[in-house]
Amino acid sequence: MTLTRTTCPYCGVGCGILAGADGTIKGDTEHPANFGRLCSKGTALGETLDLQGRLLAPQVNGCDANWTDALDAVAQAFSTAIRDHGPDSVAFYVSGQLLTEDYYVANKLMKGFIGSANIDTNSRLCMASSVAGHKRAFGTDTVPGTYDDLEHAELIVLVGSNLAWCHPVLHQRIAAAKALRPDMRVINIDPRKTATSALADTHLRIVPDGDIALFNGLLSHLAQNGALNERYLRDHVSGAAPTIAQAQQGNPRDSGLSQAELLEFFNLWSRTEKVVTVYSQGVNQSECGTDKVNAILNCHLATGRIGKPGCGPFSVTGQPNAMGGREVGGMANMLANHLDIENPEHREAVQTFWNSPTIPTHQGLKAVDLFKGCADGKIKALWIMSTNPAVSLPDADGVAKAISNVPFVAVSDIMARTDTGDLADVLLPATGWGEKDGTVTNSERRISRQRAFLPAPGEARPDWQIICEVAARMGWKDAFNFATPADVFAEYIASAAATMTFGRDLDLSIFADADYAKLVPTQWPRNDMRFFADGKFYHPDGKARMLPISAPAPRTKDVFTLNTGRNRDQWHTMTRSGKAPRLGAHLAEPYVEIHPKDAADLSVSPDDLVELLGPNGKSVVRALITERTAKGQLFTPMHWTRQQSSAGWVNALAAPVVDPVSGQPASKTNKVTARKFAAT
Ligand code: SF4
């Protein structure tokens, strides 16, 4: 059996895989992300390749159609809406599952040719707060960390990150490094005790959103104890004095930790030179997510613990190509190549490179607002690609209604029936993992190839090709005349080169002469280069910025705080992972973790059903009584959809509350009430 070298389609670790058409799956020992390791999800990929439930032909108004009619319908609906209502009357909602080539042409079409920035992505739910925090601190969305740093750190601080279930191979790498170096310390900061806490030397159970009080407290402690790097601050950082003054006004006990826990953490952090702070959704998915990111970055900048091996802040992304989407500007507040929509020179450079008729001068609608725009009637034509917002966004029932309110909806997907696809006027069959070719960028900026090892099923086509065919029908054939994904990748690399005159971080010159077919996993700008090693950042003065951050007011305790997240063996809405029986065996039904005291107060016994009521909906799930979740808090997985569990899917419960800077939904702190479910 010939095995094809490709990349896992699940999380942002981006593990290399050797895959065969017979379902053989092996970890790629030569891939620097995993060196042959895989997790349960990656290992079971071979069981997810059947065609059951696949969308194999286009559909128009619920009937099978040919490609010509389906593409004509999409192009005509978008052209008509733009003609009658202007470019901001249309929108794309895309996905971190798309490959970079798909993202590139979608962004080029919406921004350079339609002339709107109404393209946003489900990655908004994943890492938008980190993007915003990076830009505020560094001047660009630069991730300084590498996986290698995890193995060289003396102290790893995992904040709001259940790495053991959500980035399992990174967890495996840390566990292996810790076994070799018993002096390595791991601290897990999380309101919930998780599988990751078992690896940690210390689990610090903060209150929800207690991160800012904690990291402001750390900054204040560093200042009080002479542990700041004064030379680094003088030469490379602005804003330190007001930031420290603000931090000193806070009370670190608002984090929920005892004085002894705080002191132990502060002393360990300040006395350890090589500290990596890894953070993910527990930080990002918050009403104050961007501020949390900056509170963490402030501590690293204040001590110069950045730009060195084994040292630095490190945001790990949830999705396989969230990073690639950021690079090509596939978000409503970005242009392309890490450039800014609001900057006229940046706009001109991108428009000149694309030789395009237009370019938006203002940001578009971010995910939650985009669907509000659908509900309000502002959006007249919507194209959703490779994602299922009718169940995955907060206030999911409201989002489903909003989609129904749009006069024309196209959905590209691999599956025939999804909660979102059922609302479409036109369904476009896309190729899936193993059937399509392209590139993805993982959490450490490493670009790897996804390669096809199976034929395209039925009439399915790759997303980049579908987008280009619609663009051609809208009158822009020459600008979207790509024959292969390699052509798209080459233009993307050239576009980055053309805009490097602005001295930004996105230097992809290492890929300029690369053979696409043989492309090996490569970090940008170079495998051996470390961002910020020279102390140079991307603000106009060349310095990084520390930002004064205030901790949020303590939460009210009259309702439960519902945290949502992932199970170990499932991915998103289980479209793919739900096909593997052994993955389904891990946690087979929706559940809610509830503290024993809360369960007793509600007269809930093990295996009883619990009804959760949010402002916009309710859910009924099995009680899992455990001290892993603190009193007053609940946890439930977000994988089940309306189609899979009519009562047990949770995003209907959530209010569409977002971080005001990043627009990322606050999925960890939903306010709900709970009661024992009594069937009537
Ligand atoms: Fe795939 Fe992530 Fe598991 Fe690696 S850790 S095999 S990328 S799901």
Automatic annotation (TrEMBL):
<feature type="domain" description="4Fe-4S Mo/W bis-MGD-type">
    <location>
        <begin position="1"/>
        <end position="64"/>
    </location>
</feature>
<dbReference type="GO" id="GO:0016020">
    <property type="term" value="C:membrane"/>
</dbReference>
<dbReference type="GO" id="GO:1990204">
    <property type="term" value="C:oxidoreductase complex"/>
</dbReference>
<keyword id="KW-0411">Iron-sulfur</keyword>
<keyword id="KW-0004">4Fe-4S</keyword>
<dbReference type="GO" id="GO:0046872">
    <property type="term" value="F:metal ion binding"/>
</dbReference>
<keyword id="KW-0534">Nitrate assimilation</keyword>
<comment type="similarity">
    <text>Belongs to the prokaryotic molybdopterin-containing oxidoreductase family. NasA/NapA/NarB subfamily.</text>
</comment>
<keyword id="KW-0560">Oxidoreductase</keyword>
<keyword id="KW-0500">Molybdenum</keyword>
<keyword id="KW-0408">Iron</keyword>
<dbReference type="GO" id="GO:0042128">
    <property type="term" value="P:nitrate assimilation"/>
</dbReference>
<dbReference type="GO" id="GO:0045333">
    <property type="term" value="P:cellular respiration"/>
</dbReference>
<dbReference type="GO" id="GO:0051539">
    <property type="term" value="F:4 iron, 4 sulfur cluster binding"/>
</dbReference>
<dbReference type="GO" id="GO:0043546">
    <property type="term" value="F:molybdopterin cofactor binding"/>
</dbReference>
<protein>
    <submittedName>
        <fullName>Assimilatory nitrate reductase (NADH) alpha subunit apoprotein</fullName>
    </submittedName>
</protein>
<dbReference type="GO" id="GO:0016491">
    <property type="term" value="F:oxidoreductase activity"/>
</dbReference>
<keyword id="KW-0479">Metal-binding</keyword>
